[in-house]
Amino acid sequence: MHTTLVGGHRFVPPSRMPALKLYYFKIRGLAEPIRLMLADNGVEFENIMFLKDEKWFESKKQFAFGQVPALKEGDMEIPQSGAIIRHLARKLNLTGETEEEKVFADFFSEGLRDIHDKYCEIIYRNYEKKDEFLATTYPAEWAKVESLLKKYANGEKFVLGDKVSYADYLLFEELDIALILSSTVLDAFPVLKAYHARFAKREGLQAHIAARNYPVNNNGKQ
Prior knowledge:
Blueprint: E1 4-6, E2 9-11, E3 20-25, H1 32-40, E4 46-50, H2 54-59, E5 70-73, E6 76-79, H3 81-91, H4 99-124, H5 130-149, H6 166-181, H7 190-199, H8 203-211
Keywords: Transferase
Family: Belongs to the GST superfamily. Pi family.
Enzyme class: transferase
């Protein structure tokens, strides 16, 4: 496989990447930011989806930790959503150029993961507290995210300013599922609301979104 140097990093053109197989459940969940990033960058992959049934409990034995998402790239298997998206981002030059940018993208993404965990707590365990979550938890968290987003280009472009990074796909997906939970959840955060609307117009994302036929969560709540 031939690679070229882009911004000091090895960049693997999508057409030359090994065959990719992404395994997850038939929902958006932890795999959707990975799917969005691959689709937006023109990377072909096999989107293998499981239902949570007896077949899945037998199939899970093949994966490290017995969990998905998992990525198979040739003979290499990569578990854990964070490891997968960062691995692919390095190949696609979507991690940032400077060390400061890379660190920012990393901790920005980890913060979004914390928000997603709080979202899942409501969706899967405490759905009766949805209104309280929307009134207290989400506003506090989105205020922090909006403040961070303004660090580069005042939040008017991407997480790292002029350059798309893997953090953008995590942010877009988290905002998207938030808007499904409540269509007004971002009204108090104009920078985030504008970001979501702007990023949604990307051609690669629109094609993927139009084609997907699976829900946000396993339990039908959103």
